[in-house]
Specification:
This protein has 325 residues and is mainly alpha-helical. Helices cover 63% and strands 9% of the residues. It has two domains: 198 residues, Up-down Bundle (Alpha-lytic protease prodomain-like); 112 residues, Cation efflux protein, cytoplasmic domain (Alpha-Beta Plaits), CATH 3.30.70.
Length: 325
């Protein structure tokens, strides 16, 4: 499904690119030229996105034991860099339009063509973001956001062309180019920032919160504590590792069963393709006793009082949670 969606984006981007350049040659509008130049970026980015999704779908191998999913972060960063480059070109063209004004012609026809591309880009961008979130694909989300930003820019362009037609003030054309350039710079930066965060395994608070919600609902009494929780994203795949504190007197078979049960809960409730590494820690009586709500413990040394509250900040700490007196 992801390949079909990105191929749709690629084909649509090519068609719309020709329409936008046709509108430019028809009208001689610098603002329409900036929109057409960005459509080149759409085509290149969609092509690279298709390759990255194809590569990300390949199974793990000896050279890539965690799979190929991180290529999607490269794809998003590449697309963001292209968008920022296009913004710089657009700014240059805008300056030139102020220094060397052009005569604008056939603006109503140009308006109709750009309005059509705006509608198509908006629909495709919405679909890519919708299914990108469903399949947890940063590439689909990035390409969808790019098309949506392109649609917003084109919508502003439509409004600007209407103003030019109604007022016959041609310098509005250059002003529109400058506005589009800064919009693109912002969206390009956002994509690059997210790409770098993923490649550097920056803590994703949203992912930690999702796991926290699962634990709060499905926690078993025998799971005394969870800490040092980390989540890495490899495309749509998640790699989770954490420390799970269990009663110190369990035998190896019992520890194995609890670890497997913990893993099953994570996979079932997140709905993700999850690989989990769990390090089992023994509890440390009596220090853990007052914070341990495992009522079936026959070797408790102190009475249970209260467990520390599990929060995002607590789960990611590399330290066991004891009750604070």
């Amino acid at each position: 499904m992801k390949k079909k969606l990105i191929m749709l984006s690629f084909i649509v981007s090519i068609i719309l690119m020709f329409i936008k350049f046709g509108a430019y040659f028809l009208t001689n509008s610098n603002a329409i030229l900036t929109d057409a130049l960005e459509s080149i970026i759409n085509v290149i980015a969609s092509g690279f996105a298709f390759y990255s999704i194809h590569l990300a779908s390949q199974p793990r191998d000896f050279e890539h034991p965690y799979g190929h999913g991180k290529i999607e972060f490269f794809s998003a960063g590449f697309e963001g860099a292209l968008i920022m480059s296009a913004a710089c070109v657009i700014l240059w063209e805008a300056v030139q339009s102020f220094l060397h004004p052009k005569t604008l012609v056939e603006m109503p026809m140009g308006l109709a063509l750009i309005a059509f591309t705006t509608l198509v880009n908006g629909l495709v961008g919405y679909l890519l973001q919708k299914y990108g979130k469903k399949y947890d694909s940063i590439t689909l989300i990035a390409d969808g956001k790019h098309l949506m930003s392109d649609a917003v820019s084109s919508l502003l362009l439509v409004v600007g062309i209407l103003l030019i037609i109604l007022t016959n003030i041609t310098w509005i054309d250059g002003v529109l180019s400058v506005i589009f350039a800064f919009i693109l710079l912002y969206h390009g930066y956002q994509l690059v920032r997210k790409s770098v965060a993923g490649l550097m395994d920056e803590t994703n608070r949203t992912s930690i919160e999702e796991i926290l919600n699962v634990l709060l609902v499905s926690r078993k009494d025998i799971w005394i504590d969870v800490h040092n929780l980390r989540v890495q994203h490899y495309g749509s795949n998640w790699h989770i590792d954490c420390h799970l504190t269990l009663p110190y007197y369990l035998d190896l078979r019992q520890v194995h069963d609890e670890v497997e049960g913990f893993r099953d809960v994570m996979i079932e409730h997140t709905g993700k393709e999850v690989e989990i590494f769990i390090h089992a820690d023994p509890c440390l009586p009596p220090a853990n006793c007052e914070a341990c709500h495992y009522t079936e413990c026959a070797l408790r040394e102190l009475k249970y009082i209260k467990s520390p509250e599990w929060t995002v900040e607590n789960l990611v700490k590399d330290a066991k949670h004891f009750r604070k007196v």
